[in-house]
Amino acid sequence: MNERMLKRIGKLPNKLSALLRAAVADCKAVSKDKRYVLNMHYWHEYDADAKKCCVCMAGAVLANTVKIPLKETVVVFGCGGPEEDKMIAIDQARFGALYAAVSYMYVEPSADQIETLKRLGDVIGVKFNPKLGRAPWGAYLKVADEREAAGL
Q1: What's the whole-model pTM score?
Q2: Whole domain around residue 55: which residue ranges?
Q3: Apex CA 132: angle with CA 33 and CA 105, to 5°?
Q4: How far is residue 116 CA from its own chain's centroid?
Q5: pLDDT of amino acid 103
Q6: Can you tell me the distance from the alpha carbon of 84 to that of 97, in angstroms, rounded to the nearest whole number?
Q7: Hey, how many other C-beta atoms are within 10 angstroms of the C-beta on 48?
């Protein structure tokens, strides 16, 4: 990943609620693009045989917002810094690990906020579909709304 792309990631929201909204919007956008397949096992990996790029929630942000080229395979681990941490935060939130996601956003929640994170994590966990590797998009948006209301 080049410096220009890292700068684009760095410009992504610094609040997890806003980052989740962006990820959901980008997932919806790439799911309409026949060149992409949502597959939560890949960050951003081009399949030359299928002529499609597999992306997870964070990978959808890489594809749609960061504009990683379609045929470029990207693994986020190893780029370091807050750019990597934002992508990992999206991935942690994907399956409801909101305390971990928040920690990647350099936030130390209060005791009350930790309880809110657990409750909101359950919103995702209850609706999580293992076959898809994610919950319905509405679950993430609900979490984003409530996190924002709680100041997270």
Answers
A1: 0.89
A2: 3-149
A3: 85
A4: 20
A5: 86
A6: 17
A7: 7
What is the β-pairing status of strands 36-38 and 44-47?
unpaired
**Which helix (H) or strand (E) element contains residue 53?**
strand 52-55
Phi, psi of 36 (to 5 degrees): -120, 155
- The Cα 62–Cα 52 span in angstroms is 15
- In the chain, how many domains are there? 1
Residue type, 100: A
Rounded Cα gap, residues 82 and 37, in angstroms = 26
Torsion of CA 59, 32, 145, 127, to 10 degrees: -80
Confidence of residue 106 (pLDDT cuts 50, 70, 90): confident
Tell me: the pLDDT tens digits for 20-79? Answer: 999 999 999 999 999 999 999 999 999 999 999 999 999 999 999 999 999 988 877 666
